[in-house]
Amino acid sequence: PASPTLAVIGGDGIGPEVTAEAVKVLRAVCGDDAFSFVDYDLGAERWKRTGEVLPDSVLAELAQADAVLFGAVGAAPGDKSMPSGILERGLILKIRFAFDHYVNLRPSRLYAGVPTPLAESVTSRGEVDFVVVREGTEGLYCGNGGVVRPGTVHEIATEVSVNTAHGVERVVRDAFERATRRRQKVTLVHKHNVLVNAGQLWNRVFEQVAAEYPQVQTDYLHVDAATIFLATDPARFDVVVTDNLFGDILTDLAAAVTGGIGLAASGNINPTREYPSMFEPVHGSAPDIAGQQVADPTAAILSAALLLDHLGRPEEAARVTAAVTEDIESRTGQRRTSEVGDAIATRVS
Ligand code: IPM
Ligand code: MN
């Protein structure tokens, strides 16, 4: 059979640099012929050149791929020609919604020797190793809402969070399934004391699904309290399940306490495999350091490990993760982006 196709969207800024290292590691661990890589030119630069964000024909091609490897997109912060939201809504979220990426998987692990803002009294409480299962297709990200009397002192702007029983159930179930393969604990994060409509739905579904997994321990935290525990006792978390926006915010904090955004990987997963899943570092395009080969490609490489897992290559995924762990634990001075990729590629081959 033909080798699986990986669509590669390097994007802007450091995106192409870190993605190139992820491709390098995939070739090293699976062999040069294991995948056909197809590059797609998308992002701020494409938009500026052509006015196109994601043409339907490109979306249709991406749908034929076995998985998508995504770098980062975005123009420089001072660049006023690129309005906020164009790429976010038109590219990243468009793909997540079109390909029904209802599990936005974001693992966090504190590797030995990695600088962390966490106090010694916190890290000594236990291993920090958890995954956030962030819902990826609903909530406040749907773009429901609108503006009444725009630009006036009576302007009313609304954003409506959409939560369906179907959408909540499938992501909560995924979290419980993951917990059975991990340390058997799921924490629901929400804010049901204030967001009572959605909160009740999440609570009810969570309890119903939990009843099917008696061996899995459950916990609930309001999102504000969850941020406290991420800073004071992150070892208490195993699998965290939450909605789209809470998950967005929590996973930046999770990255910050586990060595920073340079290490944080993610998978936008369609567990039914009806559509290709997309794997991307949590970080952005970092235009300030683009093109200098100073970005850390580790998050992109760890995202490639999630891709391998998803494509049914757990053994190769584990080799990449192990190589990254060794690489992180043996870090000394500054290395160039390609040197980090080379070092990890050497360890896996
Ligand atoms: C992320 C990003 C995106 C999100 C943006 C760029 C749309 O912050 O992947 O976490 O909010 O999901
Ligand atoms: Mn984010």
Automatic annotation (TrEMBL):
Cofactor(s) demanded: Mg(2+); Mn(2+)
Repeat found in the keyword field: no
Molecular function (Gene Ontology), one example: NAD binding
EC number: 1.1.1.85
InterPro entries: ICDH/IPMDH (IPR050501), IsoCit/isopropylmalate_DH_CS (IPR019818), IsoPropMal-DH-like_dom (IPR024084)
Positions of region (Disordered): 329-349
Short name of any one Pfam family annotated for the protein: Iso_dh
Biased composition (Basic and acidic residues): 329-339
PANTHER family referenced in this protein's UniProt entry, alphabetically: D-MALATE DEHYDROGENASE [DECARBOXYLATING]
The protein's name in its UniProt record: 3-isopropylmalate dehydrogenase
Organism in which the protein naturally occurs: Auraticoccus cholistanensis
